[in-house]
Write a structure and sequence with these properties.
The protein is an alpha/beta fold and 263 residues long. The chain contains ten helices and 13 strands. The strands form two sheets. Strands 1, 5, 6, 7, 8, 9, 10, 11, 12 and 13 form a ten-stranded mixed β-sheet that branches. A three-stranded antiparallel β-sheet has the order 2-3-4. A hairpin with a 5-residue loop joins strand 3 and strand 4. Helix 2 packs across helix 9 and helix 3 packs across helix 9. It is globular and about 60 Å long. The termini are far apart.
Length: 263
């Protein structure tokens, strides 16, 4: 008898939770609108960036477009200033942030994240041929660049001995151009973006050995939008299971970086 009562109580609790999730209206609102509006920094290669003709491409773009196709809705991309992207999400300027966003305790106070879909980390990049800097410890007393509002800032602050100066830039592209011009000694950037930039300009940059931090990428939703988050997560889980995420990953990175078993 007790066992039956426990089973009934669990069933009631699960039903209540499902009802509460469905009752937040976020998924229904997106379905009625026929579109999911996603905020991003459209200079963040290879996650989401513009080709010369203005076309938006990247890993996150391909993955989100596939999610939209499976959910039967259109994906609308909303470029935004990265330093204020969380505020813009909570101000309802878009429905989620899907742009290689690192899951951090500070951000988790303001938004709700999906499960990690890529494991990344911060690295230090220098110009090719720089003989004075051989490792992270050589960055002490040097001028280091980072993207404003990104985890690179805290990663740069954690380097010992400390950098002489940390300069913040609107985009990683601007920071790397200043590095190439000799105005910086190094740029701290997430591995995926940094290595993609290095591949685009061969012979210009090189990464110092090792990671400064290890970080997971997640999709950010407003905390109340539980039904929307659940549906997007279910769709991504299916894409991982059927190999679609791996296929998209190999297109952009040459290997499957979405498989949790490899993290």
């Amino acid at each position: 008898m007790k066992r039956v009562l426990v089973i009934l109580m669990v069933a009631v609790m699960l039903a209540f939770a499902a009802s509460a999730m469905a009752g937040d209206g976020s998924l229904e609102k997106v379905k009625q609108a026929g579109q999911l509006v996603i905020g991003l920094d459209d200079t963040f290669a290879p996650m989401g960036f513009r080709q010369d003709d203005g076309t938006l491409v990247g890993f996150d773009v391909d993955a989100a477009e596939e999610v939209g196709k499976r959910m039967g809705i259109k994906i609308v991309w909303q470029p935004t200033e990265w330093s204020g992207v969380v505020h813009s999400l909570n101000a309802k300027k878009f429905d989620c942030i899907w742009n290689g966003m690192t899951i951090t305790p500070e951000r988790e106070k303001a938004v709700s994240f999906s499960k990690p879909y890529i494991m990344d980390g911060q690295i230090a990049v220098i110009t090719m041929g720089n003989k004075a800097i051989k490792g992270q410890s050589d960055l002490g007393g040097k001028i280091v660049g980072v993207q404003k509002g990104s985890p690179a800032l805290e990663a740069a602050k954690s380097i010992k001995p400390a950098a002489k100066e940390i300069r913040e830039y609107d985009t990683n592209v601007k920071a790397l151009l200043d590095l190439e011009a000799g105005r910086l000694d190094s740029v701290v950037v997430d591995s995926i973006a940094g290595r993609y930039s290095m591949a685009q300009r061969p012979g210009k940059y090189v990464a110092l050995p090792g990671y400064i931090t290890n970080e997971a990428f997640g999709i950010a939703f407003r905390k109340d939008d539980k039904s929307l988050q659940a549906e997007v997560q279910k769709t991504i889980d299916a894409m991982i299971a059927d190999g679609t995420m791996g296929k998209i990953s190999r297109k952009w990175f040459g290997e499957d970086v979405t498989d949790p078993a490899k993290w």
